[in-house]
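job 3f2a | input accepted
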Amino acid sequence: MRYLFVLLAALLAACGEEQPVKSTTQLAPDALKAHSELFHKGVEKVTDGVYVAIGYGLANSIMLEGDDGIIIVDTMESADEARTVLAEFRKITDKPVKAIIYTHNHSDHVFGAAGFAEGKDIPVYAHESTSYYINRVVNQIRPIITARSMRMFGNHLPHGEHINDGIGPHLSITPESELYALPPTHTFDDKLSVNIADIQIELVHAPGETEDQLFVWLPEKQTVLTGDNIYQTFPNLYTIRGTYYRDVKQWANSLDQIRALGAKHLVPSHTRPVHGQDKVAELLTDYSDAINFVHDQTLRYMNLGLTPDQIVEKVQLPEHLASNPWLQEFYGKVSWSVRSVFDGYLGWFSGNPSELQPLAEPEEAHRMATLAGGNDALLESAQKALNDSDAQWALDLSDHLMILMPDNDTVKTLRADALRQLGEKEANPNARNYYFTVAREVQDGLKPGFRTQMSEDFLATLPIENFLHAMPALLKAEETLEENVALGYAFRESGKQFTLRIRRGVAKVHSGIDDDVVATLDTTEVTWKAIAAGVQNPATALAGDDLDIDGSTLAAMKVLGYFEKID
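job 3f2a | predicted structure (567 res):
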């Protein structure tokens, strides 16, 4: 029953075994090395009763101190990191935690919640959609998102190749990390005003980097906590780990809404706070203008008929924005943003008819080799490009060579060397980490992936439906084109029942148990979630009382065998 994929937290990166390599710190751009100074570790006082912990993980955690308690805004990426930060906060005050606020659903903001709660029943405030997004830690594209996240955050890389993660020093998640997001208990749609520990707080929905994003306004302190809608780098209007379209126009509008507050202190959930009403207003203006500029100019050139490649060459931030320290490309990139805006409006097709029905990759690779004079000549051209420091062209040619000569060590070395050349010159950590990680995949056989620690208490907060509805995307359709078979699920404590049906290459899950199921798995939600997460061995569950099969065990195993086994 290991057909269920390994459960991983949303947008996680991973730590693998570090392979000894020569440090490449000296090959990193000076600007990127200097950018690491933003993440100097420590707790910084923003104003009376407002403290921000910076540099302990990818994101900041913010403490609001009231009369008889504290409020934690954003909780780090793991319970382990949260406990470390809480210990630092305890050097300031020993007042109890009265509430937790999530600015949005990303893993580095919610998965440390249990560490701050310390086993107590703590109210959790969030937007009404945040639970939905946290619950999506089990979804249909988890394996590929996990791999791409690991590349982007560079957690498989040794020091030197990995410098920082653009918005934080690193994503502090290891196979031993405890990930435990507490479910929100107090939610709202547009705006919520509350008083906690005698602190007046306004929570305002402000979609941007995520749909559930909110900002925290402290009117008495003239302080705004902006979540991930602003940080000291050009914004990730598109993330290369992969995401659906981020509505960048809405993002800019949210920044304008924050600017209208007239705040004297701005505390982002990444990088460092900003002080002074005029400085805060100017920053928010420039940040919003930069997003609007990229959006509007991309649309302008789209309407003139240009393709994404052509628009990327046209859209560059004007000097007054490009020189702003808060708009340097240490996380997002203008070029990536242009492509995302184009795709968000028009989809994958650039408008160039040659892309409608392109040659299959093997055919194109063979024709490219023919043009070059054969495989060896193509390899020679790629090697010459690499020797001439034309790494992008060498990488482009290696795409074809990897198809034509996939087991050739010289080709693998060339591709890895091209990737490293690009990485050494890249000041954007996302791109840099991606280049270096893929180089290790090509040359060393690195396979990004590991199993995180999911407690049964946390698993219990996730809907069982998530685990079942993720299965259809794992079906090996080619093995089931003549099948029409169904398997039932009956969960004891909740009384929920489902049917997993395979019908000629398509799997679907619906409520209730059909009359023609070959067997029914009679178990508990806790057991099935633990099996799916790799916490419990299915054989152990079968041997005890946690899992029974009503019907043919052989037929049930055959059905489960039709799904990909992803470790």
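job 3f2a | The radius of gyration is 25 Å.
job 3f2a | closed
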